[in-house]
Amino acid sequence: MVLLDGKKTANDIKDEITISVNEMIDLGEKVPHLAAVLVGSDGASLTYVGSKVRACERVGFNSTLIELPETTSEEKLLKVIQDLNGNNDIDGFIVQLPLPKHIDEQKVLNAVNPAKDVDGFHPENFGRMALEMESFIPATPYGILQLLERYQVITKGKHTVVIGRSHIVGRPMSILMSQKGPAGNSTVTLTHSHTKNLSEITKQADIIIVALGVPEFLKASMVKDGVVIVDVGISRVPDDTKPRGYTIKGDVAFDEVSKKSSFITPVPGGVGPMTIAMLLKNTLIARKRNT
Amino acid sequence: MVLLDGKKTANDIKDEITISVNEMIDLGEKVPHLAAVLVGSDGASLTYVGSKVRACERVGFNSTLIELPETTSEEKLLKVIQDLNGNNDIDGFIVQLPLPKHIDEQKVLNAVNPAKDVDGFHPENFGRMALEMESFIPATPYGILQLLERYQVITKGKHTVVIGRSHIVGRPMSILMSQKGPAGNSTVTLTHSHTKNLSEITKQADIIIVALGVPEFLKASMVKDGVVIVDVGISRVPDDTKPRGYTIKGDVAFDEVSKKSSFITPVPGGVGPMTIAMLLKNTLIARKRNT
C-alpha cells in the first residue's frame, strides 16, 4: 500500500511555483497577484482565507485580502468584484464561500471575470473544462488529478467510481477522469443518493473517489483488493481523548480499507493540502495568460 | 417491447409549440424568430438547414436563412454573428456545422451570444447545464430526455450506460441523466474507446444510450432482458436492393436487440426527429426569455 501523500506533493508543487516566481523576478516580470474577498467573520472562512494568503507569501506571490463586513450589500460586493475584474494588477481572485444569506452566491460567482476565476467556479470555465478547452480546473479536482498523475496511478482503461455528485468535486471529477489526457481515459461511474446496490458497483472499481461528507462511509467490504482510494471527505467527529475534543475523519474507514488498497489518500494530509497548491497553480497560470 | 416513437413525439412537441405561437399571435406578441447561418453548399448541410427552416414554418416561427459562400473569411463570419447577437428581432440562431476548414469552428461557436445559443454549444451554456442553472440544453440530448420522460421510462435509481463521450451527445447525456430532475437521478457509467470489457458493463445496464456512429455495434448478447435502448447512431450502409443504394442503420442491431428490450428507439424515426423539435423548443424558450 502506497500513501498518496498530499502534504508532500503540495509542497513539491509549491516549490515548483516558487522556482517559476523567482524566474519571473529575475526577468523583471511582475509576480502573480491573488486577491481574496472575505465577507463577514466566520471562523472557518477566516482560517481558510488566512491559509491562502500565507501560501501566497510562501511562493512569492503578491496577495490582497479584502475584508468586508457581514452586512455588506450584494450590490456593494458586485461593485468590488467589478473593480477586481478591471484591475490589471490582479491576476486572479476568489470570493470565499459561504456568503451571508442575503447575498445570492451564484450571482456573485457569475460576476467574476472568467479569465480571473482561479477557483474555476464560473459556468463558462466549467463548460470549457467539460468541453476540453483551456480553462481553470477547480482546485480540489485539479489536486486529485495531480496526485494520481504524480504517483503514476494508471487511470486509462480503469473503472473509476465517483461517490457524490457535488458541483465542486463529484461532478467535475467524473468528467475529468473520463476525458483524454493525464489521469484520464477512465471508464467512470457516477453514483449518488439514488444509487441502488452501491457496494456491488464499488466492488468492481479499480479507483474510488469518495466525496460525500459522511465519516468512514466506505468500508473494506465495499472494495476489491488492489483498489486505489481518493478520500475527499473531511469531518470533525467528537473525540474526548483529543485536546480539541474532536478527530478529523474522512469518508473512508482508513484502517480497514487501506489494507486492501494499492494507493490511498490519508485524511488529513491527502486531498486537503492539494487544494491550496492548485489555487496557487491556477493563479500562476492566470498570470501567464494575463500578459 | 414499446417503440420510443421519435417521429410521433416530435410531432406532438411541434403541435404544442404551434399552440404557444398562436397564443402569442392572439396576444399581439412577436412570434419566435430563428436564424440559421450556412457557409458553403455541402449537400447534407443544405438538407439539415432546409429541414430546420421548414420546421419553423410548420410551427409559425419566423425564420431567416443566411447563406454565405464557401470562401467566406472567418472575420466576415464573426461579423455576421455579431450582427445577429445585436439584432433584437432574432431570438436565437444557429451556425450549421461543419464549417469550411479555414474557419476555426470553436472560435465561431464561442462568439455566439449565450442567450441566443439555441444549439446549446457555447461553453457558458454547457457549464450552466452541468451546474444545473438555466441554460439551453443541446437539442439531441434534450430530445432524448423528452422521449424518456414522455414514455414515462423510469430513470431514478436505474443504471444508465452511455457509449461514446462526444461533446454533443455522450458527455451531456452522462451529465443530464445523473442530475436531479425528470429523466434524471440515474447512476451513470460513461464508456468510450478505452473501456475494457464493455459487454460486462452493458449487460448490467437498465438503460443504454449508444452514440458511436458504428452501424449495428450493440448486439443482443451485450444486453440484459428488459433493457431500455436509445440509439443515437445514424449511418448510411451500402445496400444494392434499395433505390438510393444505401440503408440507414443505427448503432444497435435492432432486430435482435429489440427482442430483449422493454423500450427501444428505431432508426430512423427515433432520436433524429426529436433534434429539430427541441431546436424549436429552445427557440421558443429564447423568445420567452427575450422579453
Describe the structure concisely:
2 copies of one chain form a homodimer. The first copy, chain A, is an alpha/beta fold and 291 residues long. Chain A contains 10 helices and 11 strands.
Verbal overview:
The structure is a homodimer of 291-residue chains. Chain A has 291 residues and is α/β, with parallel strands linked by helices. Helix content of chain A is 39%, strand content 18%. The first copy, chain A, is built from 10 helices and 11 strands. Chain A has helices at 6-26, 43-59, 74-86, 105-111, 123-130, 139-150, 170-176, 198-202, 254-257, 271-289; strands spanning 2-3, 33-39, 62-68, 92-95, 159-163, 187-191, 207-210, 227-231, 235-238, 246-249, 261-264. A 6-stranded parallel beta sheet of chain A has the order 1-11-8-7-5-6. The first copy, chain A, has a 3-stranded parallel beta sheet with strand order 3-2-4, with helices on one face. A two-stranded antiparallel ribbon of chain A has the order 9-10. The longest helix of chain A has 21 residues, at 6-26. The radius of gyration of chain A is 19 Å and the shape is globular. The N and C termini of chain A lie far apart (44 Å). Chain A binds chain B through residues 106, 122-133, 156-157, 159, 165, 167, 171, 174-175, 178-179, 185-192, 194-196, 201, and chain B through 106, 122-133, 156-157, 165, 167, 171, 174-175, 178-179, 185-192, 194-196, 201. Strand 6 of chain A pairs antiparallel with strand 6 of chain B, so a sheet runs across the interface.
Secondary structure elements and pairings:
2 copies of one chain form a homodimer.
Chain A: E1 2-3, H1 6-26, E2 33-39, H2 43-59, E3 62-68, H3 74-86, E4 92-95, H4 105-111, H5 123-130, H6 139-150, E5 159-163, H7 170-176, E6 187-191, H8 198-202, E7 207-210, E8 227-231, E9 235-238, E10 246-249, H9 254-257, E11 261-264, H10 271-289
Parallel strand pairs in A: 1-11, 2-3, 2-4, 5-6, 5-7, 7-8, 8-11
Antiparallel strand pairs in A: 9-10
